[in-house]
Design a protein that fits this description.
It is built from 14 helices and 15 strands. By secondary structure, it is of the alpha/beta class. The chain folds into two domains: 238 residues, no CATH class; 155 residues, Rossmann fold (3-Layer(aba) Sandwich), CATH 3.40.50. Bound molecules: 2-acetamido-2-deoxy-beta-D-glucopyranose (3 copies). This is KDEL motif-containing protein 1 isoform B.
């Protein structure tokens, strides 16, 4: 299936294909913006529907970017039609049958934008503008793109609805494959709406684009950023699945979790803060483990080490995400960089205790303290956790609504 849609081209072919290189626009600002908007629309809205909030307040961005208006105008229309709890269905985008050879239904590759003036964008779209703001005035030059090659795992080109990939090096596990597949699915979900574009993608954890020189920062996509870097954030591969640890695509996990959430009501859950993960990837996680319950102290935390090797040998019986929503409070703490676990923790109908993060992925900056999560201090975690849990258990009405 992958091969059918992602045509891998050798370096030579890509650079000698004059239609690709010569016609590549000098300013790819707008197509990139649109790509991010489509992706954010698809995922953030699904996450939002699980966080029992009313954060659907739109922000007027006006006519600054016609692209944003196009999408948002449609968006707000469908929002009126369904409830604010709308859900995007990604599975409808690929319909493959396996009778003999893999074949997937063809979808039209061109379409027309429904243009409407004066649309409104959800509040969280403003982060996209901020992330690509570095290129807003001067655009993106060929030279800038090429400079991103230094650390990129692949270059991806969308040309008339087809995806072309030039690979530079292998990523960790299957991150690159799932990321490319995500873009292919996006093209099928929004046929004709993804403009021709070219982007460089780095699948490693830590952001690397530091300090914008006179020449301008290279536009490099990755899964997370921080306040010192200019990397452009993109949904991580696990939204489309994480094969190595048996995590299914987001919309499947979300359904399972909603079922799981209904099984135990908030009030009936264990009145403690739960965390399970790999503590060896970051000092802050080892620091967190000190808050575990012992014979001499109880900070209201119940912390466990996830042993993925053992789990994989046991068929992942104990790592089912939906069955981890058993506590009233769940702790989110970064690992080596941002942690993929974030969305799964938030999707439990528990109170998320978020240890002050350094990194951001494409949606975390839109979350509001005391509305979507309870902030936990990085220094003095144990006290902070105990205070949050005690407060929550004493104010059950306020918390569970
Ligand atoms: C997928 O294709 C099969 C066979 O062509 C068809 O019967 C089925 O309804 C399609 N499913 C969707 C979701 O479009
Ligand atoms: C935390 O304490 C619980 C209960 O005593 C124990 O089962 C668990 O293994 C401890 N976790 C760690 C990481 O030591
Ligand atoms: C995992 O769970 C399945 C079904 O519940 C069971 O058949 C299997 O024996 C379990 N595997 C291990 C290693 O515990």
């Amino acid at each position: 299936m992958m091969q059918r849609f992602i045509t891998e081209r050798s370096k030579k072919q890509l650079t000698t294909d004059s239609t690709l290189v010569k016609k590549a626009p000098v300013s790819t600002y707008t197509p990139l913006l649109l790509l991010l908007i489509l992706l954010t629309t698809a995922f953030v809205s699904s996450l939002w529907s699980t966080l029992s909030t009313t954060n659907t307040k739109p922000t007027i961005i006006g006519k600054k970017t016609s692209v944003a208006n196009v999408v948002s105008a449609k968006d707000s229309k469908s929002e009126e039609k369904s409830s604010s709890r709308k859900r995007f269905q990604l599975e409808a985008t690929l319909n493959c049958s396996n009778n003999g050879k893999q074949r997937c239904t063809s979808y039209p590759t061109s379409g027309v934008f429904e243009r409407e003036e004066g649309g409104v964008c959800p509040e969280y779209f403003r982060w996209i503008h901020e992330d690509v703001g570095a290129w807003k005035e001067r655009g993106i030059s060929r030279e800038m793109v090429e400079r991103a090659k230094k650390s990129a795992h692949f270059r991806l080109v969308v040309k008339r609805g087809r995806v072309y990939v030039e690979r530079y090096k292998k990523s960790i596990q299957t991150r690159e494959v799932f990321t490319m597949w995500g873009i292919v699915q996006l093209l099928r979900k929004y046929p004709g709406k993804v403009a021709d574009l070219e982007l460089m993608f780095d699948c490693d954890d830590l952001p690397v684009i530091r300090g914008s020189s006179l020449a301008g920062p290279p536009p490099l996509f990755r899964y997370c950023g921080d306040r010192w870097t200019d990397d452009i954030v993109f949904p991580d591969w696990s939204f489309w699945g994480w094969a190595e640890i048996n995590i299914r695509p987001w919309e499947h996990v979300l359904k399972e979790m909603e079922k799981g959430n209904r099984r135990i009501k908030w009030n009936d859950r264990e009145p403690y803060a739960y965390w399970k993960g790999n503590p060896f990837v970051a000092e802050t996680r080892q620091d967190l483990l000190k808050c575990n319950v012992s014979t001499t102290q109880d900070w209201n935390a119940r912390l466990y080490v996830q042993d993925w090797i053992q789990e994989s040998q046991q068929g992942f019986n104990n790592s089912n995400l939906a069955s981890q929503c058993t506590h009233r409070y769940k702790i989110y703490i970064e690992g080596y960089a941002w942690s993929v676990s974030e969305k799964y923790i938030l999707a439990c109908d528990s109170v998320t205790l978020m240890v002050k993060p350094r990194f951001y992925d494409f949606f975390i900056r839109s979350l509001q303290p005391m509305q979507h999560y309870w902030p936990i201090r990085d220094k003095g975690k144990c006290k902070s956790i105990k205070h949050a849990v005690d407060w929550g258990n004493n104010h059950k009405e306020e918390v569970s609504t």
